[in-house]
Amino acid sequence: MSRTPKDTRAWQRMLSGRRLDLLNPSPVDIEIEDIAHGLSRVARWNGQTTGEWAFSVAQHSVMVEALAVELEPQLSVTHRLQALLHDASEYVVGDMISPFKTAIGLDYREMEDRLQQAIHIRFGLPPTLPAKIKSLIKKADLHAARIEATGIAGFSEQEARKLWGKPPAVKITGRFDPTPIPPDQAKAMMLSRFNSLIPALPPVR
């Protein structure tokens, strides 16, 4: 007997015990521990990186938030947290490379956007990003991709210049080291950064 849409499970059980509806995600079913745990085990670049460990989305997220602050030192706590959580939906949907997202089409992006908005609401953030901040985070994200590409993903400097332009004009510190770290360490690093930002988040008006 074939399964009907009504019979099909469309939720995922998290280690926290939450059951997240993938089609209609509720903010109350979202926990930062689940996000950090999942992202620490999601590999960037489809795992095609050097090193003993995969370079995780959790480690990437911390790098992007730091790069966003380098680009805009006066960035508010709200926008810093949005930068840290810019790929948070991937704890459910995984990290698909951009060409694959394009091939799948709009439905995938709509589901990703709904989940991302629920995550924002869960942590007291506006559901959507202002255009200026979205652009800033995207720029930081591309800078991180470039650092990762040439550092651990096998891209030459010539290839990187064609795809991402010149190296980012920011002070490269240890926070931007793309050397992959173990999942538990990446999880702890993301949780630590989240916990340092959340107490300073202004109340929702």
Topology:
Elements: E1 11-13, E2 19-21, H1 32-39, H2 57-71, H3 77-84, H4 90-93, H5 98-104, H6 106-122, H7 131-151, H8 157-164, H9 183-197
Antiparallel strand pairs: 1-2
Helix pairs in contact: 1-9, 2-3, 2-7, 2-9, 3-9, 7-8
Question: What's a concise summary of this model?
Answer:
The protein has 205 residues and is an all-alpha fold. 50% of the residues lie in helices and 3% in strands. The protein is globular, with a radius of gyration of 17 Å.
**What strand line-up does the widest sheet have?**
1-2
Instruction: Please count the helical segments.
Output: 9
**Order of SSEs:** EEHHHHHHHHH
Quote the distance from N terminus to C terminus: 51 Å
Overall radius of gyration: 17 Å
Query: How would you classify the helix and strand content by structural class?
Result: mainly alpha
Q: Let me know the largest β-sheet.
A: 2 strands, antiparallel
Give the overall pLDDT as a whole number. Answer: 87
Helix content: 40-55%
Strand content: under 5%
Low-confidence stretches: none
Task: List its traits.
mainly alpha; 205 residues; two-stranded antiparallel ribbon
